[in-house]
Amino acid sequence: MKIGFIGLGNMGAPMAANLAKAGHAVTGFDLAALCPEGVTAAASAAEAAKGQDVVITMLPNGAILRKVADEILPGMDQGAVHLDCSTVDVDSARAVAEQAAGVGIGAVDAPVSGGVGGATAGTLTFMAGGSEEAFAKVKPLFDIMGQKAVHCGASGAGQSAKICNNMILGATMIVTCEAFALADKLGLDREKMFDVVSTSSGYSWSMNAYCPAPGVGPQSPADNDYKPGFAADLMLKDLRLARQAAEAVDADTPMGTRAAELYAAFVEQEDGAGRDFSAMLPRFERRGRG
Ligand code: NAD
């Protein structure tokens, strides 16, 4: 396939490189980052998108996605598909898909789970929204960049799934961290705590796969001085998207709201900016009830 790839940052670069390695003709564009090996550089987003079968975007947020969509959609071929893998608000995903449909282009929103490690190894999970036809067209690309792709429904459904997943992740990471801090104060050994919880009803991905306590459980950012990994700033972004979505449909999400407040304080008033989202544990270690 002929593929345009716009947004070659931490995630986009290894994803584009994997597509090129698999034999696809990939043309890339980024405002700042360089093209990875095997990807041909274009001079603009519009140039990277022109004449391609599929154009992938991997951008920081919904406002930038809308701007790039304005640049690329008018010049794309009829019947081509725009595949957006960024994490953005549901409204932006739906608006961009509608804009694409208006000019005869298919659209799939397919945010990812798995981080930079998954992008590099080609083991991402994609959660996708869009028509059956558009999904079928990009499915072979999901198989290269990832290990699983779930077609969740119509446009916006991928972003909806991502937001719900990350709301659960943010809340479970916080409660896992506060439970470790409580266990410390109760004099409970951290290894014993992990041993019990990871095989009891309190288990979760945050505890079992990404344990926030250094030296406990599998290797995780806690063992690397809380260097991300998945930055607290990005978790805050996703929790805010969840809040925005909940407000739009009048859903009651008190735990998600509290998680957003705690990550906002951590990132914006404390020392959380640029640290892994599991660095909530040292935050709770330092604090009493006040
Ligand atoms: P990043 O900041 O490393 O990359 C984004 C890239 O977009 C940058 O290189 C930037 O120069 C480029 N860009 C910005 N505006 C542009 C424009 N107008 N035209 C062309 N390029 C432009 O971010 P990332 O970590 O690669 O994340 C990308 C998306 O993936 C985000 O939506 C993020 O929430 C999501 N995501 C990230 C992770 C992760 O672990 N990093 C995991 C899952 C999902």
From TrEMBL:
Gene3D superfamilies in UniProt: N-(1-d-carboxylethyl)-l-norvaline Dehydrogenase, domain 2 (1.10.1040.10), NAD(P)-binding Rossmann-like Domain (3.40.50.720)
Annotated metabolic or biological route of this protein = Amino-acid degradation; L-valine degradation
Q: State the Gene Ontology BP annotations.
A: L-valine catabolic process
Q: Can you give the residue ranges of the 6-phosphogluconate dehydrogenase NADP-binding domain?
A: 2-153
In this chain the 3-hydroxyisobutyrate dehydrogenase-like NAD-binding domain maps to 156-281
What EC numbers are recorded for this enzyme?
1.1.1.31
Query: What Pfam families does this protein's entry cite?
Result: NAD_binding_11, NAD_binding_2
Which UniProt keywords are listed?
Answer: Branched-chain amino acid catabolism, NAD, Oxidoreductase
Give the annotated active site: 162
List, in alphabetical order, the Gene Ontology terms for molecular function in this entry. Answer: 3-hydroxyisobutyrate dehydrogenase activity; NAD binding; NADP binding
Q: Which reactions fall under this protein's catalytic activity?
A: 3-hydroxy-2-methylpropanoate + NAD(+) = 2-methyl-3-oxopropanoate + NADH + H(+)
Classification via NCBIfam families: HIBADH (TIGR01692)
The similarity annotation says: Belongs to the HIBADH-related family.
Name the chain's protein.
Answer: 3-hydroxyisobutyrate dehydrogenase
Organism listed in the record: Rhodovulum bhavnagarense
